[in-house]
């Protein structure tokens, strides 16, 4: 399904490119270039009569379609500095009516602002919402052009969503989205879409009882879908969403998340986190081999390390990781458990030890 979405995106881009006139002048056109665009004054002739915008914005839209290079460039400069109400009106015009060439110029300038504005600025937030709204326009040309911008700048789109989720106190890690793109020189090779969720290059979102119960948070969450689709078949999955017992999401919302990110990236967990990633073993019926340990986690604080084999919890034998996850769901933050571990470490007499672990939450 994910590969189809990537192919659809490529096909959409090719069709859009074929439809754009090759001789159309861009916002940075040569002023000596001869143009055949008819002179426009006042309100754009293709603007819907239902569109309610200020005279200033109406003139700006008209100037974007002017055959005069100077007027077009002045309109572009004004558009680059448009704020709040003006930008909302311009977005409304994109939805309800302006000729295609003016719409293209508007979206080109929005893309520049989208790329260059400070990540946590009002400017990038306003521009982002204008593009997101345009991507759902009923006008095919507008929606496809805006979607293409968002698809090409998927990392920027991810960063904007993460920053706003952090401002809403949504528990996630890493909180600095730039960490997602950093490549560690000593990172182990990963194949076939496998990922290490303990890594800072893997976005982890925890939906617990404190999740903001509003549509905005859920919409931002869905905008992270590029972390799944862009990494499909090319690099490790970059996102995991943990549904912690007591979360407020409806069944329908959980189904949407699974359809967006895939079943394997949506995990249902109890209120506590041990903080280990198991190393798969085949043909072995005893114990859980620790592949990696999350820094600062319950396991890390207890001295558990990579290569340890967890064979029992509170005296009950463990055969696989799912069994460990199931048993942990009966505990709460602050509870203590006893793990029996076999290890070849030099500090362990006889190669085994019992470790008391004080359980922490997920964040």
Helices and strands, with pairings:
Layout: H1 2-19, H2 55-64, H3 69-80, H4 84-96, H5 100-116, H6 122-134, H7 140-152, H8 154-167, E1 172-173, E2 203-207, H9 215-222, H10 226-229, E3 239-244, H11 251-261, E4 266-269, E5 276-278, E6 288-293, H12 298-301, E7 309-313, E8 316-317, H13 321-328, E9 336-342, E10 352-358
Parallel strand pairs: 2-3, 3-4
Antiparallel strand pairs: 1-2, 5-6, 6-7, 7-8, 7-9, 9-10
Helix pairs in contact: 1-7, 2-3, 4-6, 5-6, 5-7, 7-8
Structure description:
With 363 residues, the chain is of the alpha+beta class. It is 40% helix and 13% strand. Strands 5, 6, 7, 8, 9 and 10 form a six-stranded antiparallel sheet that branches. α2 packs across α3 and α7 crosses α8. The longest helix is centred in the N-terminal third of the chain and has 18 residues. The chain is elongated and about 80 Å long. The two termini are 32 Å apart.
């Amino acid at each position: 399904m994910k590969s189809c979405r990537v192919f659809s995106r490529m096909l959409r881009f090719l069709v859009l490119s074929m439809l754009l006139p090759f001789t159309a002048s861009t916002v940075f056109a040569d002023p000596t270039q001869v143009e055949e665009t008819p002179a426009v004054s006042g309100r754009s002739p293709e603007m819907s009569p239902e569109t309610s915008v200020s005279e200033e914005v109406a003139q700006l839209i008209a100037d974007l379609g002017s055959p005069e290079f100077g007027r077009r460039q002045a309109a572009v400069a004004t558009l680059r500095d448009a704020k709040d109400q003006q930008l909302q009106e311009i977005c409304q015009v994109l939805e309800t009516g302006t000729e295609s060439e003016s719409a293209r110029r508007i979206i080109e300038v929005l893309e520049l602002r989208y790329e260059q504005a400070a990540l946590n600025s009002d400017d990038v937030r306003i521009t982002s919402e204008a593009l997101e709204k345009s991507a759902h326009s009923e006008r095919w040309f507008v929606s496809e052009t805006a979607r293409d911008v968002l698809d090409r700048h998927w990392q920027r789109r991810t960063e904007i969503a993460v920053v706003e989720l952090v401002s809403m106190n949504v528990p996630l890690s890493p909180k600095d989205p730039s960490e997602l793109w950093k490549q560690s020189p000593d990172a182990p090779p990963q194949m076939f879409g496998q990922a290490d969720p303990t890594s800072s290059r893997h976005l982890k979102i925890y939906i617990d009882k404190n999740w903001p119960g509003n549509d905005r948070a859920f919409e931002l969450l869905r905008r992270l879908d590029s972390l799944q689709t862009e990494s499909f078949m090319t690099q490790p999955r970059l996102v995991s969403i943990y549904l912690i017992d007591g979360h407020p999401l409806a069944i329908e919302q959980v189904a949407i998340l699974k359809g967006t990110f895939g079943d394997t990236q949506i995990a249902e967990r109890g209120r506590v986190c041990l903080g280990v990633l198991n190393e798969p073993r085949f043909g072995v019926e005893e114990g859980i081999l620790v592949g990696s340990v999350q820094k600062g986690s319950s396991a890390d604080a207890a001295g558990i390390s990579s290569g340890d084999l967890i064979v029992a919890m509170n005296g009950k034998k463990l055969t696989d990781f799912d069994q460990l996850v199931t048993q942990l769901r009966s505990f709460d933050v602050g509870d203590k458990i006893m793990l029996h571990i076999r290890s070849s470490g030099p500090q362990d007499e006889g190669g085994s030890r019992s470790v008391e672990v004080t359980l922490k939450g997920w964040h």
